[in-house]
Automatic annotation (TrEMBL), chains A, B:
Residues 216-227 have a biased composition (Low complexity). This is Pyridoxamine 5'-phosphate oxidase family protein. It comes from the Bacteria. The lineage of its organism: Bacteria, Bacillati, Actinomycetota, Actinomycetes, Kitasatosporales. Coiled coil: none annotated. SUPFAM superfamilies: FMN-binding split barrel (SSF50475). Residues 1-26, 216-239 are annotated as: Disordered. It comes from Streptomyces paludis. Signal peptide: none annotated.
Length: 239, 239
């Protein structure tokens, strides 16, 4: 049940489903695998949705993509991770947890002449599916390394690896990329023709994520240099 | 049912509930009204969670806060807005839609000596409740203006107001701020004492959202100047 399920045919698009075809703005929807991966790989936090007592819950959560699988992590005491079940004793009967994981980049403010046509430029991915608790030690370590590397690429090799106690204290859930869609809006405002001559400025204000100067921990030995992957990233800007 | 429900006593904290007290990291939770408002007012997009056919759905959505109420908007054809019901014919019996609205700012990457203690600095607000369709014309207009001003403060007064046709084509739902919590992580890594001497850099990489140079629409009359509220915001940086 927890095998990696990348398509053997190397297909470049996810199949669409009733849940992933939007009811509106269908021209913005995409199932392109490379586009989806790019959006997922460029973010730090996803929004994890699940149902508790019949009501929706949405929590910001660290995650990483490994191939066609997402890993999310949290304390073993956190609600969704406990609800996903999959303790080693009962793994065979793990029903999993129905989830929706959404990743969104806000790329720009779209200012139109009309209030009605104001919008945002964005890239988002929505993944529907069933999350399962990851119990195999090797996969748990792979997932935790990937989550550290999602925060800073290469960092898992430049920090102390998790020990057994820490691995035991960290819950990991996995979600396979089966039912997946991306939605992207780019470009300028779509004003109505009769509004084009109105005296209001119209266009896009790009939002430009960047990195500030790294702030060493108060207790960092001054002899420890700033690693190259941090200074390089800052100069590069963005991710 | 849709009256503004700001507390008459001017209380400065939201009451906690079983849904808003986290099972872990309780020291990061807050019910402070001013903190919650600040987090909500500084974002452009929320993540709206609802339940459809028993499964969670999480969608990025434009929104605005007006007092103790959130407004979210979308096409009248969009799924959550249709599900929220509240057509004028049946408003009296509008059951509403159980939702969870989450707003998250990612403020920094927290790099610890140990992989285990890697984290993010963030500010998030989670709102649980029942969303209702807004049908009163005056409140709909207030909501739409607020959503435009959430994208760019003051912009609703510097664009063509929505006409009746546009108002009819836009669905607005409201969610009162009753069951609300904020969660904030700040500061450096929390490494274990025995790890402090390890030769790995540790600290925080701040994430600094900013604004790029405004890009005029292709069809913008060059005689229309860039408004002051856009140039000023860019110089100020951040929001």
């Amino acid at each position: 049940m927890q095998e990696n399920t990348a398509p053997e045919n190397g297909g470049t698009a996810y199949p669409s489903s009733s849940r992933t075809v939007p009811t509106r703005a269908r021209e913005r929807a995409s199932y392109d695998r490379e586009l989806v991966h790019g959006i997922l790989d460029a973010a730090y936090v996803c929004h994890l949705g699940f149902v508790r007592d019949g009501a929706p819950v949405v929590l910001p959560t660290l995650y990483a993509r490994v191939g066609e699988r997402l890993y999310l992590h949290g304390s073993t005491g956190s609600r969704p991770l406990r609800m996903a079940g999959g303790t080693s004793a009962a793994e065979g009967s793990d029903p999993g947890l129905a989830v929706c994981v959404t990743v969104t980049h806000v790329d720009g403010l779209v200012l139109a002449r009309s209030a009605f046509h104001h919008s945002m430029n964005y890239r988002s991915v929505v993944v529907h599916g069933t999350a399962h608790r990851v119990t195999a030690p090797e996969e748990r370590r792979t997932a935790l390394d990937a989550i550290v590397d999602q925060v800073t690429p290469g960092r898992s090799r430049d920090s102390r690896p998790a020990n057994d106690r820490e691995l035991a204290a960290t819950a990991v859930i996995s979600l396979d990329l089966h039912e997946v869609s991306a939605k992207v809006r780019t470009g300028g405002p779509n004003d109505d023709p009769e509004d084009l001559a109105l005296p209001y400025w119209a266009g896009v204000v790009p939002l430009t994520p960047g990195y500030g100067a790294p702030v060493p921990a108060d207790d960092l030995d001054p002899a420890v240099p700033l690693p190259g992957y941090l200074s390089a990233r800052r100069e590069r800007g963005g991710r």
